[in-house]
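Researcher: First entry.
Model:
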Amino acid sequence: MKSLATIVLLLVATLTVTAQQKNNIDSLPVRGFCIGSPQATRVESFIKFIHEELAPRHINTLILRVDYNYQFKLHPELRDSGALSEVQVKQLVNACRQHNIRLIPQINLLGHQSWHGHTMNLLRVYPDFDETPWVKMPDKYEWPNPDGLYCKSYCPLHPGVHKVVFDLVDEICDAFESNAFHAGMDEVFYIGEDKCPRCGGHDKAELYSGEVWKIRNHLAEKNRQLWIWGDRLLDGKTTGLGMWEASLNNTHRAVDLVPKDIMVCDWHYERPDKTPVYFAMKGLSVVTCPWRMPDNAVLQLQDMFDYRSSATKEMKPRFQGMMQTVWSDAGSFLDEFYGVWKPPVDTTTGKPYKDLPSNCFKAIFPKK
């Protein structure tokens, strides 16, 4: 007969194993990393990063924000200068395939058609797609400003916009051999503007959800899944999350109108808000996305483990995992990650700032 002490030790061991299994990062369906695609001159070093850092940390999903950093054949007028060639994209594809990493390209759709005083390629080449052509780009950008200009949007009801946009989407998905596409769709401040001759007066939530459905349906024709950022589906006023991480222009009601088979990338950077539960209760699959604060990211990771361990069998599959986001191009991040770029010193502690994407990444995805 086992002694009481032995039984207690066995129980403790069992509980420890159970906790380790519950909090095993490999148990998450999505272990993601999102970053701006590398410039042509940094492809080789980024592939090295895939082999030596992403794979050993068991990353299984890589989202590359490509936008116009590709030598499009259907619309060469929209290429960035020095854009990635098809050969370089295939090198990235092959590197990911070696480690069973799902590679998903992103092109910002609907919103983020400008940045500060710079108009992005789509509206620069096709200015008639602009939702707010009367808002002129300033020589010196400042926020706030009288026009409420953060980023321009294309008009979702323009009769010609989707022909061009879907040409880009199809070509980039084919090049990346991808079964999913990330459309961005975050921080959409201009939508359904009163002065727009096409969508003025329309319900903003219906316009937003209509665009989601249109993109989703196009992707579904080739069995591709749509991923989007989740901020426009959250009520910024009721939650107190404000205009950046949530919506103050009434798009939040689209959460009940969008298709249920999309993936919502739920980003919160200043606070570890528990909004994944909201998305899951709406029937949507969700991934939590930190950026630069390691302490917050660790709390968000623990939350994701807790959601999955306590959820009903219906809810659990909707809590899909974690994705580190990096809001720079790959080259800049690599310089930070490998210490080529030195962070400034925090005047409070006298030490380099710890709130960096590289530190956040290492905190939630330790090297195996």
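Researcher: Second entry.
Model:
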Amino acid sequence: MQPARERASVDTRLPLANFGGEADAWLEPMLADFLSLACNVCNAPFGMMTQLHGDIGLQHPFVSVVNGRGDVRNQWWRFAGQNGVSRSAVDFSLCEAAVRRGRNLTEISDLQSDLHFGESELATSMPHVRFYAAVPLVAENGDALGTLCVMDRTARNLSAAERDGLQKLGRQLEAQLESRRTMQKLEQQTLTDSLTAIGNRRSFDLRLREEWTRHLRNARPLSMLMVDVDYFKQYNDTFGHPAGDALLTQLARVLRSPLRASDFLARYGGDEFSLILPDTDEIGAMQVADRIKQAVARVKWPHTEIEISLGAATVTPSEMCDFHALLGAADKAMYERKHGRAKNNS
């Protein structure tokens, strides 16, 4: 008889699309190994890992609305003969039920005759699953990360040794994912300003280099805004440093409000903030600047009203310069505005 893991053929596989980018590539080699081991241990032709609720650090996850909330939904599949893994979002009902069972293994010998899941997409369409077994993946804090699954197109059961092997692989995969989550949290802390909870100078430098590379590759305009608070030293001297910290924290929230998801805000240093605006020309940058000024003017600030100085700079694909020149131009524009206001007030 032909071994089970050799029965899957390329033309009968589930249509897959790999939407993972470079930022998510850390996960794929690890999952390819775990799914290959799971299939070998259980003599199964294909396997899958699902991500359900827990954050595992993907920059580009699939998100769906479940029970009225947005939940991360990802699947990584590995079929016999496949190199690596591929990502999809097909049918999560089985894995959702499996992960509710705590750490207990879920095993369905013939899915197509199952009363609860016989009409599920996995059973009725590609890859036409009959046998299904899954181990829940649970983080240390109780987050239901997802499941590690093996499947077959033939009805069957796992042996005791296969069940034990699949559960042990699940615990190892949990540990790997938890280690990655911990590392990313620590890394995020080094890139976040502790006072305002936005990016710090280090994260700004990293993001600016990324956006500059994208600007050159895609030949799209790139803009930057620099913002600082006028007379901030006097504000601190008059109302105290805790009041100054509260002002900066509130200003960070105000600056973030008119931005797109692709824009980036960081505390550049002291009372200076930096905004990176990808795919934004000079007109678009001025529109963002106007929205920020209006947002600041609408806020009822504690103690006294504040004013900000804001400088903008844009580089187009036809201009020959580097990101240091862009940063310098935005910084210069901000200080010219600040000094111009100071002269007018003197």
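Model: Note on the second entry: The first strand starts at residue 46 and ends at 51.
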